[in-house]
Each structure stands twice: as C-alpha cells, then as structure tokens.
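Retro notes
What went well: the complex prediction finally ran end to end.
Inputs used:
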Amino acid sequence: MNWMSLIWPMMAGTCLTLACIHLRLSFERGVKRMPHIYFVCAALAVGVISCLELELMRTTDVETYNSILSWASLPIAVMVISVTGYVATFMRAGHHWLAIMVVVLISVAEGANFFLEGPMVRYATSLHQQETWGGVTFTLPTYAHCPLVWIEVLAVIALIIFIADSTYRFCRQGGSRRAILMGGSLIFFQISSRGHAMLVENGIIHSPYLVSFSFIGVILTMGSTLANGVLDASRLSTALQETERKVDLASRASQLGFWTWDLTLDQIWANDVTRDLFGVSSTIKINSEVFHNSLHPEDLAEVSEAIATSRQTGNEYACTYRICLPSGAIRWIAARGRPSISENGHEFMHGVVMDVTSHRESTRELESVRGQLAHSSRVSLMGQMAASLAHELNQPLGAILRNAETAEILLTQGNLDTVELAEIVRDIRQDDQRAGAVIDRMRAMLKTGHLQMEQLSVHELLGEAMALVRAEAKTRGITLRQQLPPHQPVVMADRVQLLQVLLNLLLNSMDAMKENSEDSPKEVLLGATLTDEGRNIKIHVQDTGCGMTTDQLARVFEPFYTTKSHGMGLGLGISADIVAAHDSELRAISSHGQGSTFYFVLPCQKETVHQ
Amino acid sequence: MRENKAYVHLVDDDASALLATSRLLRAMGYAVRAYAAAADLLADLRPDTYGCVVADLNMPGMDGLDLQRELSRRELRLPVVFLTGQGSIPATVRAMREGAVDFLEKRAPKEELIRAVQKALEHAAHDRAEQVRIEQIRARFDSLSVREKEVLAHVVLGKLNKQIAADLGIHERTVKLHRTAITTKLQTPSVAQLTQLVMEAGLFQ
C-alpha cells in the first residue's frame, strides 16, 4: 500500500461519482438529456483510464504493458468522442465539420492502436523501475517511435479548436458565463493530458501518465456548477414558499379560491378558500363527480357546456352558477379558468372561483326596484292616453249598441230576415273581440312583472305599438307611418318593456309636434331597418316636430329633465334603462326645428323569410 | 228636377260603426247614404241635396268640424249632427256655434240618435219649405217689368204716387196703373204686405 495505489483509485471513484450524478440528472424532467449522457460517458472513460494508468505503473512485463496500452485506446476514444458530443449538444454552437473531424481522426488513431500489431500510437520497447517521492517505485517504459501518434495529436488539436469555437459562439449568442469556465476547463484538460503524455512518451520527463489528473479541472467546474444549482434550488424553494404564503393570504383576503383540474387523471386540487366555498372538507379528494354533485341541477348543463367549449377552443372559461351547500343553502359562484396541456400531455385547467351571492342578491333587488319604476311609468303612460283609449273602446262598444238596437227593432217589427240578423250578430261578435283586444293591450301594459326575455317578432312588436297609439294620433291629427324590413327579424327582448319604450318615444314625438303650425306636416314614423349586413336591427321613432337644441339633446336622458309643462321627466330615463337592460343604448339625433329621431339597435336572433 | 226625398248622410271612418249606425237608421225607415270619409260626402253632394248629415267628429284628414265649415262655405243647408267617442268641451262649443243641430256620444241610446236625426230632418224640411216659398215669391217678382220694379222700389220706401212720378219723370196716372199691375201680379193688396215680401225675397238689399 503506497500513496500511488491510493490516489489513482480515488480519481477513478471521483469520476464514477460525477458520472452517477449526471446519469441521475439525465433522467430529470425538463432537462436536456444528451449533454448529460455524453458527460457520463466521458467521466466513466476517464475513470477507466485512471485504473489503467495505475495498472501500467505496476506492470513489469513489456507484453502486458503494450496490451494495456492497446486496451487504453478504447476509453481514450470514448473520452474524446464524449467530450466532443458534450460540447456539441450542450452549446450547439460550433462547426459540425470540426466535430466530425475529431471523431474520425480519434477513431482512426485509437482503432489502429487497438487492432494493429507493432508501434502505432503508443508502444513500449523496454521497462525499467523508477523511484519517486516517498520511496515509491513504479514502472516506466521506453517508448518506441510511433508513426500514427500525430493523428491522435491532430484529433486533440481539432477538439480544442472545436471547444474554443463553440464556447466563443455560445457566449456571443447570449449563453451563460459558466460556459466559458466549462470550455476553459475542457481545453485545459485536453492540452494538459495530451501535452503531458507527449513529454512522457518522448522521454523528456520521467513520470507516469496523468490523464485522469488533468480531469480535475473539469470535475471542479462541474462540482461548482452543481453546488450553485443546489443553492439556487434552495433559494427558489424559499422564494416559492414565500410566494405561496402571499398568494394564500391574498386568496383569503379577497375570498378568491384557486383550483387546478387535471382532466386526464380527473383530479381537482383546490385551495382552502375554494374548499370552504364549496363546503368540502380538506380530507375529501375532489374530482369532477364531486364538483357536479355540488352544482345546482339547473346549472349543470350550462357549466358542462362552458367547460367543453373552453377545452375545444382553448379560450378562457367563464361561468356563473349556483351550488347547493350541504346545509341546503344556495351559493352563487363566479368561476374563471384557462385550459392548458402539460409537458407530459396531461390536460389541465387552472382557475379561480368567487362567491357572488350577495352581489346577485343586490342585483336582483335593483332589478325589482327598476321593474316597479318601469311599471309606474307604464301606468302613467296609459294615463296620458286614457282619453284616446276610451275613444278606441267606445268605437266598437257604440257599434255593438247600434247593432243590438237594430236587431231589437227588426225582431219587434216581426222582420225575421235571418241573413241580416246573422250579419248583425257576426258584427257584434267582431266588435266585441275588437274591444277585448284593446282591453288586453291595456292590461298587458299595466301588469307588473320581472324582465322576461323572449323571442319577439319585430313586425308584431311594432304592430302592437302602433295599435296602442293609433287612437291618440288620430285625436291629435297626427299621421302615423310604419316602415318595416322585408324580412321578419326576431329579437331577444321583454315584450312589455320594449313596448313601453316605443310608446314613450311615440308619445314624446307627438308632444314635440304640439307647436307645429297648421300647414307643417305632423308625422311620426316608427321604423325598423336592418343594419350591419342583417346582423342587427335598428328600431327608430322619428318626428317632424320642433326638435331639440344641443343643450336639450345633451340632457335629454337625465332624470327629472323635461321641457313639458306636465310630466316628471322620467320617461326617457326609464326607457334608456330598459334599453340598457337589453344590452343596447337609446340614442337621439335632433336639430332644432328639424324634428328628432330616437333609436336603439338590437341583435337579430335569426331571420325568417317573409311569407 | 228638385230632389224630393230626404237622406241621412252618415260619415264615419270606423267601418263597423258606420255600418251599424246606417243599419239602425234604415231599420227605422230612414233613407241613408253612408260615407267612410268627409271628402267622399262632399264629392257626392249636389246643390239641391236634401236631408241632414250625421258625422263622426274625430276623423283622420278632414274631421267633422272641417266638414261643417266646408258645407257652410258651399252654402249647402244641411243640418249637421255630430257623433263622438269622447266629448271635448271646446269642440262641442265650436260645433254648436257653427250651427250644429246636436252633439251626441257614440254610445248614446238610439232614442237620442233618432230624436237628433228627426230634429235635423225637420230643420231641413223647414229650410226647404222656406226656400220653396222664397223661390215662389222670387218667381212672382221676376214676372214684373223693369218699370214696375222701379216703381215697386219707390213704393216700399213709402213714397207717394206724386213723388214717384216726379222721380221717374212719368205721369202720376201711369204710376197708379203700374201699382195696380204690381198688386195683381204679386197678389198682395196692402203696402205693408208688399214690404214684407220684398224683405223675405231679399230684393233691393
């Protein structure tokens, strides 16, 4: 046992350890695999070389010595090729032809040394014992002249150039500074190992091969890199924990719940806030079934569809739904999420949930107040038209009376003209229906109710509005005109409230023409025109009245603003509110003395061809 | 030829009310002409049209009051009864001031309607009789010669024969002859009656 037989195996062990670490790293997800595998090969090769160096020092037989030298060709070739591969795959910056040249040259040199007899690259002619520090003796050969050694030297020079070139380009392309250290240590390894071997082989210095020792630089560089990596990971882990704490705090403060859904495995991770919102204890594992069971049955279809659409399109998922808590209470949840695919191909969805129950309730209260206001406004509108509506009712009622009187006369006269009597009865029935229709329209306008969206034919809606104001227009001597598109567009709207808007606009238009002189026309146009290539419909009420000044136009939708001697100035504001509840906007165009136009635009649901 | 039958001219823009009212009036034995608009009636009227008008006050275009105004502009003496679904005081006042015979709610019982129509037709008949009488008087005046008319003009002013003779530059005896011819042709013995006739016929105004 001497220091030599201790140090060389230690070198081999160090190389093996480094190889093991990089082998493990190569299996890590998210890491470039090939550089690590090349490095493992290189480290293993250096380890083997280290063992062979020790063996050479102990051998006393020339034949065995040359045999070991011949076998050493294999790890040397593997080492050079692996270093080339490592640099090429790690930096991806050098010239390919240089790398190929290195591989070809080293294969030729070491192949020749391994397969062919006689002096090729390394060959000993005789052996003698040499004594060194500590009184340790080792075998030192006299080397023969080897004709192919220059090929190996050329290979190493090419490798050095390749490493230098790759490192330079890699740094130019923005690679890390550590690459310089790496490249430098690899170059040092090559120069020192090959240079030392040359001096030994030419008998200039009397020393054993020290290839594995030249590798120390590389080992140190790699070690420091690894140590830095570990430190970084530790720092990141601390920072991550800090971030998690902050996110958790924010999540609790804002009552914003986080969730992640692995759709492939059907597992849902949810933070405490989310679990609290859904009333699920932290011990229960959540999957889509648990989620579906907590949903309100009426909302299940809508939520499933929203998720499916999001998964299909890759767009953000947003949905508001109700959940039934274990206590039986209902909670409104607003959820948002985004689909993604992880590296291992799992389909994920990350998102947030929020309790919007109180918001929903206040919205509903507001809607209720708005509904009441709209209703009182409708009652007031009908009040304004009371006289003309009474007139409209009196027409059919008067006709019914006359017909009944006639029938009485005919019967008392004994005039049993059944044809005439039948006509009279038919007319009575028709007039009764006419009067009934007037009453129905009035009742519809006077009833209370929530906003009820339904599919409405624009033709029917405008027809009803016209029927409601026809008598009023007649009383005031105003010509009513209607303009309808050739198709029958359908809109999504609340019938009564939209009628109220139209009625309000029509009565306003009529009021605007009060001051018209005798000879100027009094015309109100209620029209609907398709816009945006038939996607939307513009409903407008236009008059030939006094119009508005710029100031009046600017304030026309303000509550309590009015130019009339009667009236509260609420009608237009309420109408604007109703139109806004239909996701549209009530607008006005007017110039003083030129009449006004009020209009709003609704999206068409579909279009049916006019029969 | 003079039209002798009295017609009730009914105007209402509401087809069903028009039909029902005309049905009732026919059943009551009136001759009815029904029109959906005032303009239709005006187009159909002749100077000698006889009867009355029953019109809806509230109509698009020309309304009842417009119609009444147009009738009096054309000097057509047709009494007007107005029907209305809703009575407004200013409209009623105006209508009555312009000579409407009556003003009825549409849903008034038939008795009121009949009474109003009857009254209007009586007005018409009276107007008509008056007109006939005046026309007869005018025909009698027309039979007078130019000189006789000149004499008559002086007579009704209460002048004596002597004054008339001086004014016209004729003999007093000739004046007497003319006066005899006038009283014979006009079948009026006294000067007082003669004066009344002249006023009724609207001569010398």
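What we learned: DSSP finds 18 helices and 14 strands in chain A.
What to try next: split runs per interface for comparison.
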